[in-house]
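Researcher: Re-running this chain for the archive, since the previous output was lost when a drive failed. Same request as before.
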Amino acid sequence: MATEFTGTGDPARSMALLWRTPPGADSRPGPKTTLDVDRIVAAAVALADADGLSALSMRRVAAELGVAAMTLYTHVPGKGELLDLMLDAVLGELHPDERLLTAGPWRARLEALARANWDFFLRHPWALHVSTGRPPLGPGLMRKYELELRAVDGLGLPEVQMDLLVTLVNGFVRGTVGGVHEKAAAERVTGISEDQWWAATEPYVAQVFDAERFPTAARVGPVAGEELGAYDPRRSFEFGLARLLDGIGVLVDTGPAGLSAGGTPT
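Model: Regenerated structure tokens:
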């Protein structure tokens, strides 16, 4: 699936719409319509959830709403601004229980952060294909950023390191959760399951794991394959998250405040 980019629309229009302050929105003459930005965004998100970003267009969203495409443009100027609104809207779903990120030991807070983002990308797989080099600076994104910074607040770390830690955990989640959708896509495109694919390659295992050419792979691969079976993104996530938090613990332990792994002063 091709990558879409936020920030491709008119920045001023996007910002006004994100914060629901479009100039002159309430002063248009004529009868008022029941269609509004929130309904348009909700329909666009539902469409992307069901059919992916490739199905997203102003015309398709209009059809889902039962209105003419031009009607949408009186509320949202184009697809670029719509994508900004969509992403900010779904980001606003994250962390409904704010206490999970603001109370308790730092490790539990970061684990909650990671798991919430993992679940988010499972609900909205299209968000994995949205590049936020120019992030939509709306209330949904800013609330997410605020709460996730609080998860590492009070550890005695400099502000830059707080930001980098949040970015690190989010990047890890984004990288691992992609495996879930890749597995599903591979089965959908090829028409065979992963087990069927591995069974078809079985006659070539001895050649693939040639102990003379690939001694380390030949030693590790069969053992890992027997224990782990097919690639499991969830298992990779669990293992990687634990190791990532272990590493962050080293930073916390050696940080300026000399904190313990539990996030309390030593």
